[in-house]
Write a structure and sequence with these properties.
With about 210 residues, the protein is α+β, with helices and mostly antiparallel strands. The chain folds into two domains: about 5-90, SH3 type barrels (Roll), CATH 2.30.30; about 120-205. Helix content is about 25%, strand content about 25%. The strands form two sheets. The protein has a five-stranded antiparallel sheet with strand order 4-3-2-1-5. β7 and β8 form a beta hairpin. α2 crosses α3. It is elongated. The relative contact order is 0.13. This is Anticodon-binding domain-containing protein. It holds the Pfam family AD. It comes from Metschnikowia aff. pulcherrima. InterPro entries: AD, Lsm12-like, LSM12_ABD, RNA-processing_Lsm12.
């Protein structure tokens, strides 16, 4: 499949950059906002009461590490949209408006909590100050101190002048810049990056 538009109405398993997974049916996708709506259907078990209404989880595609399509798979020449008939009535325009408001508020919170960095010769361009790289850099600077966080090239981040974090800034993208010896700061860097992603995930959920 060439784009996320093609997995609408398919059952998928989504894994984020923290290696956390969630399964559900892709209800909608917005390429403009880079988010998708995942419908999570509650299942009745044993003598438990009937399940509540379906839940809809909004996921920022920038945080997606992998997507696996689950069964039932579409048959040959069958479009994913033919698999399921719509069960819930959702105003897509209202949903997109809600997403716009949520993302705008998240950006405002992120801007308030991030301290601006002095101009450097490296790192993203000034016009990209709201990029994922800049957000991660700013939050790590707050947690570890400005003196311990530097740009390395255009989009890599160097911590304690020893630990390198490369795009997309996942835990498995942390490496020791000084390959001749083990860095004593490696675990501290991993812990700080994990906290940054958990905080960012809470902001995206509107928490």
């Amino acid at each position: 499949m060439n784009s996320l538009d093609q997995i609408i109405n398919l059952k998928v398993k989504i894994t984020n950059l923290l290696d956390e997974s969630v399964s559900g049916t892709v209800y909608a996708f917005s390429s403009k906002q880079r988010v998708l709506a995942l419908k999570i259907t509650s299942q009745a078990t044993g003598k438990s009461p009937p399940p509540p209404e379906d839940l809809y989880k909004i996921i920022n595609t920038a945080f997606i590490k992998s997507i696996s399509v689950l069964s039932p798979l579409p048959k040959k020449n069958q479009r994913p949209s033919d698999l399921l008939s719509p069960e819930a009535s959702i105003d897509v325009k209202k949903l997109e408006a809600s997403l716009n408001e949520m993302l705008e508020n998240a950006n405002k919170k992120s801007f308030k909590k991030s301290s601006p960095q002095p101009g450097t010769a490296q790192g993203p361009k000034k016009s990209d100050s709201g990029s994922l790289a800049s957000k991660v850099f700013d939050k790590l600077s707050i947690k570890l101190g400005k003196d311990n966080v530097q740009w390395q090239g255009k989009d890599s981040i160097l911590l304690f002048k020893e630990v390198m974090i490369s795009k997309p800034y996942a835990l498995n993208k942390i490496s020791n810049a000084k390959r001749t010896q083990n860095s004593k700061h490696l675990e501290k860097a991993k812990s700080a990056l994990r906290e940054v992603w958990l905080l960012e995930d809470n902001i995206e959920r509107g928490g």
